[in-house]
Specification:
15 helices; seven-stranded parallel beta sheet; alpha/beta; 17 strands; single chain
Length: 401
Amino acid sequence: MTMKIALVSPYDYPYPGGVTQHIHHLEEEFRRLGHQVKIIAPSSSDKEELARENIIKVGNVVSIPANGSVARITLSLRLSGRVKRILDHEQFDVVHLHEPMLPALPLTVLHHSRALNIGTFHAYWGTNIAYFYAKPILKRFFNKLDGRIAVSEAALGFVSRHFPGDYTIIPNGINLQRFGGDVPPIAELRDGKLNILFVGRLEKRKGFKYLLKAFPLVKRALPQARLIVVGAYSEGVKARYEAYVARHNLQDIIFTGYVTADMLPRYYRTCDVFCAPSTGGESFGIVLLEAMASGKPVVASDIEGYRLVVSDSVDGLLVPPKDEEALAETLIRLLQDPSLGYEMGQRGALKAQDYSWSKVARRVLNYYQSVMRSCGMAPIQSPLPQPSPLRVPGLPLILLT
């Protein structure tokens, strides 16, 4: 017997982002295992296009500055009736809300849901004034959650400061077939130059400006170095950085902008070193896992969310955030020692196996069953095989069931 599951996103779907990608992969795996799944989300995309992908659009999108980034959410005050009609019509067994304390869609769904309510907390913001001042109101919604998941210790530490309770850690996943399979590099970029790859939006917390400042130092030591910048950044943002590059007469920097899902693994396979210079606010380094699954060494900022993924001097190297000189020195070290980079890349690829989406999705489904039993609900189907414990670097063994 199958479950009928709603995956609720607060963010514009399918605009690129870690939470929407997480939801996308859970939906794929749940369907592969025979469950019925629908995604409920605000979206700037066409309704007919979304309907083909089994997404129920609820609310228009506005951009709100948050955590050194921009959150594309809905703030519509007219959601209540539509959400109630959707839930009454669909009769979901499980409603799984991602960032359940965010306005306005997750809170509205929680208010009306009579299903088993599961919340996944992704964010690590350091401090959150909204959580602090809205806590008395949000507490009522928080108490409607039957089960709570955090994607990392960093995310758990953040949310539990505001909302103490029982949580289970289930990490983000990686599509091993996409990133770890037989992916060809981009031939024209394998021309003898040493490629440093950055993947992400060009937002303040991603720390790209520190990599840009570090690159001339790398170039001075290694004239054959090249920086490739991939991400869903706007033409306006790209133009500002290109103007900076022109003013400082920097060479061998390529801004590709957004690349397709099929092309992204090829960029990872093309690089010699992957660099993630974020300054903070990262609960989990999904781009780090993508690089590791591709067999590439990683240079990343020594911040909490990244320390949970990269083991320093084992499968990558960690550097102090906002330190372009240390960043340059570390990049030079790896680029000058390809055997070290190869060894780190191989160890990273082995670690990435633990984070396959098939394993993560089964852990989530097992967690649904566990919460059902603890709530006195009859399990909807036989429990899936129990996963082996996952060792998070630097943390004790955690059994994710």
